[in-house]
Design brief:
The protein is α+β, with helices and mostly antiparallel strands. It has 22 helices and 13 strands.
């Protein structure tokens, strides 16, 4: 690992705040930003740690740059957010501090500012998060994080159990780090995650949902697979979702349900990974063995109900709960058996985005789609009609053709014409529609 990094990627605001504070006290780029730079990556978030007390840092920034916007939501813990526009880039500034006792499993009861970086680093969660970089680009390593980064180890600072007892959310962060690179948990840290995982019960549900969402947004599938496997192996899933314990080891004709769900999630783009993770979660209660094979009739509907409940408990947005539930409820169709009219019907009923999401989920699920690219081409060919897929007529047209007054009968005719157009899109023209409306009306009869 390098002991000096290039700071050219630092945004102008970060550089300006950094230089201003460093004139008065030691100030470093820290946390994930330092770790990313050392790994040769451009950070997404920029965090600074300074030897100035919060009030001194604020006074200095206000005097030099009154136009900067300062956010004080975390100032009692020594953190101020600096930005130049309401929605513009920001930099988080935290004063060096030492923490008192953690009594609520989330925050220290007291903090003491004005300490050294070495003391501040000693109270942080993991060694690779306790690295710092100075204004010259030199790496400052107070707790052995550089060696752990080189070895790809996620190691707690100090005694691992103490770190997790201080803040059980760190259990999630330990695993989430695995999704951010070629990392593995150091043995003592992994053992502490397993031992302390019941403490997750005291962590707010929405915070755990946020951590899960961040983990599933991992860019590298291999890293995501390692993180999901760790959640499984260390028993975190069982604390988060008791339903997962039911799925663990439940056999299918190929592989256990839990392993299949994890593999499906990894194979999907990030926006669909929750659906992949939960698409078969209800299979255990539908399992039935006949003639040497497992069958799971109705599992999609059960899985959809469970998925919505499980996401609701983690306070995921209602819209996301519903979208995941819908995908889970409708997965598993035999795409290769669908006729062009069936594909057009799906296109009209659910829209192209949902249709392709469902196709992608089923492809990752395995067996439901022989060739995804070929199926997409079939869909595009099925809907590529010059006359459109909505009937080229209105309710007034139907009233005139059939001498009808406004009412339910007109709606019934339009609904039939919609189905007819999906079967015969080449005939979606006025005269053909009129003839079909008349034929159907005679066949069906009166009101």
């Amino acid at each position: 690992m390098p002991t000096r990094v290039d700071l050219l990627s630092a945004p102008p605001l970060v550089r300006a705040v950094w230089e201003l504070l460093a004139e008065a006290a030691p100030t470093y780029l820290v946390g994930g930003a330092a770790r990313d730079l050392i790994r040769g990556r451009v950070p997404r978030d920029w965090d600074l740690a300074t030897g100035l007390a919060p009030e001194d840092a604020v006074a200095r920034m206000r005097h030099a740059h009154p136009e900067w916007g300062l956010g004080f939501a975390g100032v009692s813990w020594g953190t101020v957010v600096v930005r130049t526009a309401a929605r513009g880039p920001s930099v988080e500034v935290t004063s060096f501090r030492a923490d008192g006792v953690y009594r609520d499993g989330r925050r220290p009861s007291t903090v003491r500012f004005g300490t050294s970086w070495a003391e501040d680093a000693a109270r942080r969660d993991f060694t690779i998060n306790a690295l710092a970089v100075d204004l010259n680009g030199s790496v400052v390593d107070a707790v052995g994080g550089l060696a752990d980064l080189e070895a790809g180890l996620v190691r707690a600072v100090g005694h691992a159990a103490d770190r997790f007892r201080e803040d059980p959310l760190r259990l999630w962060r330990a695993v989430r780090l695995l999704s951010q690179g070629p990392f593995q948990l150091e043995a003592a840290t992994a053992a502490a995650v397993r031992a302390e995982r019941p403490r997750l019960a005291v962590v707010a549900a929405e915070r755990q949902g946020e951590e899960l969402a961040k983990l599933l947004a991992a860019e590298e599938p291999a890293a995501l697979a390692r993180a999901l496997a760790a959640l499984q192996d260390l028993g975190v899933w069982d604390v988060l979702w008791p339903e997962w314990a039911v799925a663990r080891g439940c056999p299918t004709s190929t592989e256990p349900i839990d392993q299949h769900c994890l593999a499906t999630a990894v194979a999907l783009p990030s926006r669909l990974r929750l659906a992949g993770l939960l698409h078969d979660i209800g299979k255990p209660v539908c399992a039935k063995r006949e003639e040497g094979r497992w069958h799971f009739a109705g599992h999609a509907a059960v899985s959809a109900l469970w998925a919505e409940s499980m996401l609701g408990r983690l306070r995921f947005p209602r819209r996301m709960q519903q979208e995941v539930s819908w995908l889970v409820a409708h997965h598993g169709r035999d795409w290769d058996a669908l006729r062009p009219a069936d594909l057009r019907r799906l296109w009209v009923e659910v829209g192209p985005e949902r249709l392709y999401d469902l196709l992608t989920l089923d492809a990752a699920d395995g067996g439901a789609v022989a060739d995804t690219s070929a199926m997409r081409a079939r869909v595009e060919a099925a809907v590529a009609t010059p006359y459109g897929l909505a009937p080229a007529c209105s309710g007034q047209d139907v009233q005139g053709w059939l001498s009808l007054l406004p009412g339910r009968r007109v709606g019934d005719v339009l609904a039939h014409l919609q189905e007819w157009v999906l079967e015969h899109p080449e005939d979606n023209r006025t005269e053909a529609l009129r003839q079909e409306a008349e034929r159907w009306s005679r066949e069906v009869g009166g009101e």
